[in-house]
Amino acid sequence: MSQPVTTPTMPDPAQPLPSMPAGPLLSGLSTSRAASLSLPLRYMVAGLAFAVLAFGFALAYSPSFLGTVFLTPRLLAVTHLTALGWLTMVAMGALYQFIPVVLDVPIFSERLGKVQFYLYLAGVLGLTVEMGTGRTQVMAWPAGLLVLAVGVFLYNAARTLARVERWPLTGWYILAALTSLALVVTVGFALALNLTLGFLPLSQLAFVEAHAHLAALGWLGLLVMGVSYKLTPMFALSHPFNEWRLGRPIFILLTAAVVGLFVSLLLRLGQAPLLGCWSVAAIGIGLYAWDYATMLRVRRRRPIDLTQQHNIAGLGGLLLTTLLGLALILVPAETDLHPRLQLAYAAASLGGWIGLTTLGQLYKIVPFLVWTHRFAPRMGKAPVPLLKDLYPQVLARAGFGALLASLTIALAGILAGYLPAIQAGFGLCTLGAALTAVNLIRVVLR
User: Fold this and answer.
1) 255 touches 210 (CB < 8 A)
2) Kindly report the CA angle at 412 between 407 and 417, in degrees rounded to 5?
3) Residue 6 domain-assigned?
4) 237 — alpha (psi -120 to 50), left (phi > 0) or beta?
5) pLDDT over 70 (residue 1)
6) How confident is the model at residue 24 (pLDDT cuts 50, 70, 90)?
7) Calpha distance 212→79 (Å, rounded)
8) I need a labelling partner for 249 at 20 to 30 A (CA). Which of 29, 72, 146, 409 fits?
9) Neighbours of 205 (CB within 10 A)
10) In a domain, 2, yes or no
């Protein structure tokens, strides 16, 4: 018999928050409804490997980044390897673990999740190869694989979410992010077909820009923000903290901005609508930065750990992205500075904001899952390590330091149009990503 579906409603933040049901929630990121460990970890391990590849490809292709044409095939290859291979791969794995914890429902089908992984992996690799070699006319086959894989993921997520009875704030962000992902894939596949068939009268550049903003701010951005409202108070012990007080207006502002930016870019509505939508996004981002600072200010776990260091640096990347986006709207497209602003905007958002935040959260999620699976049953029977003992702290700090310094160098080189700085930055990024990947994959191999 199917379970009744309750229509979700957003509670009034002025009212006392309901208590968390004791039911299946065991601790942290672990719940009796969670998927088997192999499902989320395969996505996370693959995503870490793609992070190293993405920075390595950026280093190899960097001489082509300073041309007057922004959307070169090689740049598109690096961008999609970053957004799809690294960030979306990790996001899917995290959601397979996270949805049961946040929304108190089991994943509809783990088998579908495992089949989807291989379809998605093949699609990402195929799309990267075709873009990197400049064969944009034959991108339909990997794009089709990606559409199929993401379709399976969204079907699995929809069947899972249909069972949800209580919707916390993070659940609303996840729902909006998944809706954005569905639109991202639809627009991306239409763009791939249009390169071959030319059946749509809209500008290809308009398609690409609308598609990119929907992916970065709608899918990945809303997801990162929503998840932070759960993970930051959980791990930093931020109490008391009312997530609904600013979390709800931030959600409304950012979802409205995502829709407005997508429509304005796709239909080429001009500078004024873009500036209005970006102002709405900037207000939402400013409120989010304030709310995140509040989470840290009321925390009971006083030391700023490695995860929060990543997140604070990522928040800096978000604020920089906001300023670069405003500059892109105001600086005429005909100037030599405009392509460099576009490249810096992409690097700051994907690498600086979402990338650093994602790697920081993995330093909590991966050790926590492995510890719960391997060491929790031994508590009280034998000595067990702490989470921080599962990986070398020196190596972790070195990876973070390398990433933070290298992204700063790369962004400065991009804005100045100075190739040696760009190459040095992406080279050091590759090293930092490799240190992080080795550190976390070693935890899994334990």
Assistant:
1) no
2) 125
3) no
4) left
5) no
6) very low
7) 9
8) 29
9) 13
10) no
Domain at 187, CATH number: 1.20.210.10
End-to-end Cα spacing for the chain: 41
Span 156-170, mean pLDDT?
94
Q: What is the pLDDT of residue 22?
A: 32
Phi and psi, residue 60, nearest 5°: -65, -35
Where b means 16+ CB within 10 Å and e means fewer, 345-365 reads: bbbbbbbbbbbbbbbbbbbbb
C-beta separation of 283 from 303 below 8 A: no
| In the predicted structure, residue 20 carries a pLDDT above the cut 70 | no
Range of the domain at 233: 36-371+385-445
pTM: 0.90
Overall domain count for the chain: 1
Q: What is the DSSP letter of 214?
A: I
| 422 within some domain | yes
Which span out of 72-86, 119-133, 153-167 was modeled with the highest average pLDDT?
153-167
Which tens digits make up the pLDDT trace of 197-238?
767 777 778 888 899 999 999 999 999 999 999 999 988 888
Query: Token pair 């930016």 is at which residue?
Result: 261
d(CA 323, CA 332): 16
Beta partners for residue 30, in sequence order: 27
**DSSP character for 445?**
H
In this predicted model, which residue has the larger pLDDT, 72 or 55?
55
Q: Determine how many CB atoms are found less than 10 A away from the CB of residue 384.
A: 14
Asked whether 233 and 239 are in contact (CB, 8 A), the reply is yes
User: Looking at per-residue confidence, does 381 or 356 come out higher?
Assistant: 356
Burial of 294 (0-12, 13-18, 19+ CB in 10 A): middle
Does 278 map to a domain?
yes
Residue written as token pair 């460099």: 340
* Contacts with 178 (C-beta within 8 Å, 6 or more apart), sequence order: 154, 157, 158, 161, 219
